[in-house]
Every structure is written in structure tokens, then in C-alpha cells.
């Protein structure tokens, strides 16, 4: 059950209360970061999350409010030092941009970094999850992401105990979905195990309403979605290719998402009350994020 | 009488309480920023300082904790929009580094920017102040700075009143240091005016003890100096080419500075009490800076 920490919830400019975009969640031995706005390394420190926990960074696009924390975070991770390989995913040209970044700033320590210039589709197939990317509509190449935990086969503990099967290799076989021999009888895996459905988290920011956003959010346990503006400013949303509260809630409803958390608010909103009210009219299970909010999914 | 605002007082890594290096002070129509660590734009916002006030940025060197706030600050200034020309001064190669920075990140708005690759000496001669740079000893090209307010000629108000000289062009002549004719008699400027000595602010961070640091600090009204470590960690200071409290206080004493403010503390110090005590043994008029501290000089 991943717990997502919002590290930044502002839009183009940070405010006293809101940092630029980033969100983190740990999963087993991995740590996932979506976007890396300026000052993400300090937000991690304030949140009590060690930067070396991060194993994969998914970048939506290269506007500053989503990426300017990269050089600082990478330097701090390298100095830790960082063990393992850090994978970064972003639109075409990301690899080249990292090259320029390393020439712009002094990097004393190095880390094992692999930058992936991605195309829409499955961009990451890890042992316990997959990540899908879809193009959004933001004027520059911009991706939304869908993190999909793989289903887990669980033991039916009571049934196993009833048969007297001890802890050990037989249970391992069952967990891998294989039938076993027990007391001269073949027992199919399905009789003693069940499939626990994996969780789905969708991350959709910086876009006009588009099909990609709905596809990513389809049936998601948690949809994290931009709502830069309240409904009253829908002209601004159109002009800058950002979502309003209504847009975000409509995506959640059309996609039949289970839970909606709004983020990436324009700096004009000291309070997000209007945005939340606007969204609730269309999708009731909604909250507005703030920096350091934690959400279980 | 410039008032300096400390925007960041940490060393290599930010802490919950301390941001990366930057300090700002306004002067007449100009705004001076020394260094621009990550998150400087948000620190300015919290301090209530409009980024468009900045007219000149002086970079000591290109380690991340001194420069990673540049792209974000420049974007925010450009979007404001920024009126006038922004001058940035830094070690040789700065111009090239800005080129890479602009290719690494998306910059929608542009501003009129002039980057100066500087050499030691007078690097800026503005109408009301000069800035001198001297090489420090940090392993990479690194400058310290000395901001020198030009002396101002002031009217001796009582003397002028006594002679009955009215407001107007004659006073202007006196302020420019020129003699005037009054009631058929020549009156030299020195009789009716005096020279008000300009203030001097020295900024010395990221260095081993060196002559350049003492030269910059000579007789300064305010010496802002690194003290990364308390005396007990002088081996770390030597190893990493940073100053201890004793080093900083010795520079202040040798240079006969009037006031010493320490900054750029290693993240290991939750409290700077030891650093302040160590420095006081050598130079009594010393305080340790914290984020958003304001110091008049």
C-alpha cells in the first residue's frame, strides 16, 4: 500500500507555502520520484526522506518548475554516496539535456545514472511494477504516467494450515503459482492461493484536457492531477494548456478513478477552497494537496 | 546604509533550517545578489524581496550550493517581466556555462542578460559603487568580493543656512564639489560641504585562509565570511579548503574589519554556538547568520 508524499504543490512559481512540483513514494526496495522541481532535495530533508532511497525519477517535461531540482538532488545523492543505478525517464532530448546540465554546473561526485528518452507505452518494467507513459497536451513534449503495481499471489493461510503444509519450499512453489504434490496428491496453486490486485497511481500534470490523461487514470486507485485554476479561470487554463478543477474532476469521473488528489495550483490561490468545491461538484472523493501531505492508496 | 538580507546560510547541503548560499542588499536603484544557491527565488519571496529588484549578481564559483538557483531565478525574473539589463559576474567560463544552462532547461521568457567572465581587480564600476574581486583558494576558480560605496559629498546645512544660500542650482554645484560665487565672493566647496565615507561590504566564502581574503576585508564596515567549521574540525577545513571560526576571525582581525558576520555552516551544526564562541576569542564583534537575518552596515 504505497504512501505518496507531496514535496511540492505549486505551479509555475513557488510561494511561501508551496514548493515546485515533486512527489515521492517508496515501494519495496525502490523509491519513485515524479518530477523534481527546484528545492526538492531540501523538501526531502524536511520530509525526513533520504534522497538515496530514490531509484527512479519520472519527468513529465522540461519546464523549470518540474526539473530544476535535478542537479542539486543528483549532487547530494552522489555525495551520499549512492549505491546502485539511478534511472531517469523523460521526453525525447532528456539525455542531451543532462549532458548540458553536467557542463553547466560543477559535479564533483558521480553516480551511476541511466537517462531514458521515452516514447508512449510501457517505459519501465521492474520486478514488482510497471510504468506506462502517455503524451499530454501542453505545447511542449509532456508525459503523464501510470504506475501499476503487479498483482501478488498470496497464500490462503487457513487452507494451508488445514492441510498441515509446513513453511518452506512448498509454499514458495505455491507463491510462484505452481501446483504442488502433498501426501501423494496434486494440489493446484489456485486452491491454496489468491491473486491480490496491485495498486495503480496516475500522475497527470501540465496539460489541456486530453485522451491521454483519461487513459492513464483509468480505474486508478489514486489519481494525482493538476488543477492550476478554479473553474472561474477556465480561459487561463485554455490559454496556458493547464487544467481547471472541473477539467481534473471530469478526467477522474470519466476514468472511474477511486480517489482524486489535486495539485499544481497557480500562485494566485492563497487558499484552495474554491478549487476543491469546484471539483467536488463532479467528483466527490477529492482533496487538494499541500506540501508534505501524505496520501495512502 | 545598506541592509543585507541573508537568504541562505548552509554549506554544501541545505538543512531544514538553512538554505544554500545567497545574500541580497538594495542600494539606491540597484539590487546586489551575492551567490544564488538553489531555491533562492523562494527565499526572496519569503523575505518579501521582489526578484526584479536585482540588477547585479556576483558569483563566487560554480559549485552547486552557490549557483543552482540561477535558472529558476532568471525564469521568474524574465516572466515578471524584467526591465533593464541584468549583469552577472563570475569566474572565467561563466558565459559558456550560461549557454549550457539555457540548453539544459526550457526558458520561455527571455531577459536582457550580460554575463561577465571576470579577472581579479575592479569588476564593476557603477555610478554609486565599485566592486573588487580577488582570487580565493578553493581548488576551483573562486572569487571573493569587496563592494565599495563611493564617497558622497554632503552639504553642511547649518553653514549654508547661515550664509542664506537658497535651495537650487548653487547647492547642486557644491554637491558636485565645485566652488560657487555668493554675494560677490568665491566660496570653496570644502567650506560648505564634507565627504561622507562610503560603506564597504566584503564577501568571502569557500576558501582556505589566503591573502586575497584579507585584502578584500581590509577595513570593511561589514565582513561576511564563511565559517564552515568550529575550531575542533580544523582538519576538515584544511581538507576541503573551507574556513574554520578561528580562520574567519583571524581574517577579520588582520584586516581590521569593523563587524564580522559568519555564514556557510556545515550541516553538522544544529547550533552555531561553538562557532561563535571560537570566533569571539579572536574577534569580539561577531555574530553567526541565520536565514533571513538582516544586518545593517
Summary of the model, kept short:
Two copies of one chain form a homodimer. Chain A is of the alpha/beta class and 297 residues long.
Give the largest interface.
Answer: A-B, 36 and 36 residues
Corresponding CATH architecture of the largest domain in chain A: 4-Layer Sandwich
**Biggest pleated-sheet summary of chain A:** 7 strands, mixed
Multimeric status of the protein:
homodimer
- Please indicate the count of domains of chain A: 2
Number of strands of chain A: 18
CATH class of the largest domain in chain A: Alpha Beta
Shape of chain A from CA axes? globular
Q: Which parts of chain A are unreliable, with pLDDT below 50 for 5 consecutive residues or more? A: none
Q: Residue-averaged pLDDT of chain A, rounded?
A: 96
CATH topology of the largest domain in chain A: the name is Metallo-beta-lactamase, Chain A
Please provide a written account of the structure.
Two copies of one chain form a homodimer. Chain A is of the alpha/beta class and 297 residues long. The first copy, chain A, folds into two domains: 3-151 and 197-296, Ribonuclease Z/Hydroxyacylglutathione hydrolase-like (Metallo-beta-lactamase, Chain A, 4-Layer Sandwich); 153-194, no CATH class. In chain A, 28% of the residues lie in helices and 29% in strands. Chain A has eleven helices and 18 strands. The first copy, chain A, has helices spanning 40-47, 64-67, 70-79, 94-104, 157-163, 169-175, 189-192, 211-217, 234-240, 245-255, 273-280, and strands at 3-8, 22-27, 30-34, 56-58, 85-90, 112-117, 121-125, 129-135, 143-149, 152-155, 180-182, 185-187, 193-196, 200-204, 222-226, 260-263, 286-288, 294-296. In chain A, helix 8 (211-217) packs across helix 10 (245-255) and helix 10 runs parallel beside helix 11 (273-280). The longest helix of chain A has 11 residues, at 94-104. Chain A is globular, with a radius of gyration of 21 Å. The termini of chain A are close together. The interface between A and B is large, with 36 and 36 residues.
Amino acid at each position: 500500500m504505497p504512501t505518496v508524499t507531496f514535496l511540492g504543490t505549486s505551479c509555475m512559481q513557488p510561494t511561501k507555502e508551496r514548493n515546485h512540483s515533486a512527489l515521492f513514494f517508496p515501494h519495496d526496495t525502490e523509491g519513485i520520484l515524479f518530477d523534481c522541481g527546484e528545492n526538492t532535495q531540501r523538501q526531502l530533508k524536511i520530509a525526513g526522506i533520504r534522497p538515496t532511497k530514490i531509484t527512479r525519477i519520472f519527468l513529465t517535461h522540461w519546464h523549470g518548475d518540474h526539473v530544476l531540482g535535478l542537479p542539486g538532488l543528483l549532487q547530494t545523492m552522489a555525495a551520499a554516496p549512492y549505491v546502485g543505478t539511478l534511472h531517469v525517464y523523460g521526453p525525447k532530448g532528456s539525455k542531451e539535456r543532462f549532458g548540458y546540465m553536467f557542463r553547466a554546473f560543477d559535479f564533483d561526485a558521480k553516480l551511476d545514472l541511466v537517462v531514458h528518452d521515452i516514447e508512449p507505452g510501457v517505459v519501465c518494467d521492474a520486478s514488482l511494477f510497471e510504468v506506462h507513459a502517455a503524451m499530454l497536451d501542453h505545447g511542449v513534449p509532456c508525459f503523464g504516467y501510470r504506475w501499476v503495481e503487479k498483482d501478488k499471489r498470496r497464500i490462503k493461510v487457513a487452507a494451508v494450515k488445514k492441510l498441515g503444509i509446513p513453511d518452506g519450499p512448498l509454499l514458495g512453489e505455491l507463491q510462484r503459482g505452481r501446483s504442488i504434490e502433498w501426501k501423494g496428491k496434486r494440489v493446484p496453486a489456485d486452491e491454496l492461493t489468491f491473486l491480490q490486485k496491485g495498486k495503480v497511481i496516475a500522475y497527470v500534470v501540465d496539460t489541456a484536457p486530453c485522451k491521454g490523461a483519461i487513459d492513464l487514470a483509468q480505474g486508478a486507485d489514486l489519481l494525482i492531477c493538476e488543477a492550476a485554476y478554479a473553474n472561474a479561470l477556465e480561459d487561463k487554463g485554455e490559454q496556458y494548456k493547464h487544467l481547471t478543477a472541473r477539467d481534473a474532476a471530469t478526467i477522474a469521473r470519466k476514468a472511474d478513478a477511486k480517489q482524486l488528489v489535486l495539485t499544481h495550483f497557480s500562485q494566485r490561490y492563497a487558499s484552495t477552497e474554491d478549487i476543491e468545491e469546484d471539483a467536488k461538484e463532479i467528483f466527490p472523493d477529492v482533496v487538494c494537496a499541500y506540501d508534505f501531505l501524505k496520501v495512502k492508496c
